User: Which sequence fits this backbone?
């Protein structure tokens, strides 16, 4: 981290103590969000999210595959994340870092736990199912990767189509059938700076974040949570942030449904 | 979570769990400190049918050099399950994606409590090997690693413990075993710093209401007294065993 980053981080910490943010946002405001869905025609589903400068492209491919041995009646879901070397001067090419693996697995857990995809609808015949591959491409890092990636994944799934199955093959020219989406999960991540939690931290803020807490909900239930970094959260803080996450759900859900129209 | 809906077993029969426990009851556990002679500190933990070794090396010079931090010690953590540790097929040896994520979140737990600023440029390496897994291995691994760090004489603000809570139908239960973990409606491992009950690790999936969540967290916090006592006892025993010089 450069000296300027460190000075900025200290400034952000001092602001936090006064209940302020460096970009004058409210504690629980998202930065501007935009979603462009269906932008990669060759993929079965796609969406690019811009969340305050963080850009994540989610691409979905649907392939013929074999079911897992413990779930012979269901299709498969797999989520991967790539922190592309172009996305930040701190990212390097190479095998997925623990940060990338955590990102993919947290997004995966939300979608899976909320049963967003009807995996049983992806069963074709004994030993043959559809496998849904979600790849999260981080094009530009500007903080809060988890919420941006979660939104991109959900929006991409919501546009996703399933190829026609004919003579044991996937016919990608005919993708008239939509992937059956049963639920929509949204993600909110709070960064704790100097004892105060803020939603949707920017890159500058993340240099000052001690602890983070991600809460994913479908509006009815909490579906997945992940605490990250070294800072801790009190039981009361967790309780308060769960309320904030439910509050944010309706708005985030609207972004997803609007994008896929 | 994650098990097939086919052949889902009944997990609660006549108000008791499959292994006869109450909803808020921990499995039986035993901790022994100082069992890996070469390590600076170590601990062996039996937690139900889990068999876990945690070992700590350091503070020592951080290697490779570029991984070091001139302001503080870096903590490195490897959590891995032995290929023979589960009842199912032979696993691949070494950390997979799941283990990589778990290693990261465990490392973050100890970054909270270890006084890393005392050892700039050095590393503290934590190794957690799951020899036999029976649900709740990351939680048990944290409880064991706390003891191993203390046994290594690493200065810490606190001795964290960890245990999971989960939901089976409409009941919140403590410390899920493997079968409960596989077929529960939600699972939530938690690590807690007992001095102020701050949550240092929290992962959850499935479905919980906020009431379920708070009930689960409180069950875990409550269970900590017993775990903390056992951790401290293991450390005292280690010194008692090692003679009056403490060597």
Assistant:
């Amino acid at each position: 981290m450069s000296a300027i980053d460190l000075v900025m981080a200290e400034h952000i910490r001092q602001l936090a103590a006064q209940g302020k943010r460096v970009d004058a946002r409210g504690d629980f405001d998202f930065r501007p969000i935009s979603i462009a869905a269906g932008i990669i025609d060759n993929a079965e589903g796609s969406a690019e999210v811009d969340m305050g400068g963080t850009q994540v492209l989610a691409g979905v491919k649907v392939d013929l595959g074999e079911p897992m041995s413990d779930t012979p009646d269901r299709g498969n879901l797999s989520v991967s994340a790539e922190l592309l070397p172009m996305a930040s001067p701190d990212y390097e090419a190479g095998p997925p870092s623990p940060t990338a693996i955590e990102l993919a697995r947290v997004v995966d857990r939300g979608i899976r736990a909320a049963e967003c995809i009807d995996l049983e609808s992806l069963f074709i015949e004994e030993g043959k199912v559809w496998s849904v591959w979600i790849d999260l491409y981080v094009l530009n890092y500007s903080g809060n990767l988890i919420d941006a990636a979660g939104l991109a994944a959900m929006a991409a799934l919501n546009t996703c189509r399933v190829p026609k199955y004919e003579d044991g093959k996937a016919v990608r020219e005919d993708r008239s059938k939509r992937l059956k989406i049963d639920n929509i999960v949204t993600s909110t991540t709070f960064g704790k700076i100097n004892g105060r939690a803020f939603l949707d931290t920017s890159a500058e803020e993340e240099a000052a974040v001690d602890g983070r807490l991600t809460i994913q909900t479908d509006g009815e239930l909490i579906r997945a949570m992940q605490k990250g970094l070294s800072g801790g959260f009190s039981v009361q803080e967790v309780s308060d942030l769960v309320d904030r996450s439910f509050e944010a759900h309706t708005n985030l859900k609207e972004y997803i449904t609007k994008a896929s129209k | 979570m994650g098990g097939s809906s086919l052949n889902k077993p009944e997990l609660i029969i006549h108000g008791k769990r499959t292994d006869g426990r109450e909803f808020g009851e921990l499995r039986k556990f035993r901790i022994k400190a100082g069992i890996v002679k070469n390590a600076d500190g170590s601990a062996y933990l039996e937690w139900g049918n889990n068999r876990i070794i945690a070992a700590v090396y350091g503070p020592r010079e951080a290697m490779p050099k570029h991984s070091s931090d001139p302001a503080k010690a870096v903590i490195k953590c490897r959590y891995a399950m032995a290929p023979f540790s589960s009842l199912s097929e032979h696993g691949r040896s070494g950390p997979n994606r799941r283990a990589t994520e778990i290693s990261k979140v465990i490392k973050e737990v100890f970054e909270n409590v270890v006084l890393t600023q005392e050892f700039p440029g050095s590393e503290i390496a934590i190794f957690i090997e799951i020899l036999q897994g029976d649900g709740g291995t990351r939680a048990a691994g944290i409880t064991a690693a706390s003891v191993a760090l203390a046994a290594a004489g690493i200065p810490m603000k606190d001795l964290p413990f960890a245990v999971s809570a989960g939901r089976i139908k409409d009941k919140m239960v403590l410390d899920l075993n493997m079968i409960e973990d596989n077929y529960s409606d939600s699972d939530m491992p938690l690590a807690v710093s007992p001095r102020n009950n701050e949550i240092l690790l929290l992962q959850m999936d499935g479905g919980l209401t906020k009431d379920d969540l708070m009930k689960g967290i409180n069950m875990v916090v409550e269970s900590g007294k017993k775990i903390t006592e056992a951790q401290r006892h293991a450390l005292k025993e280690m010194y008692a065993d090692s003679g009056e010089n403490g060597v």
Remarks:
- Chain B has four helices and eleven strands.
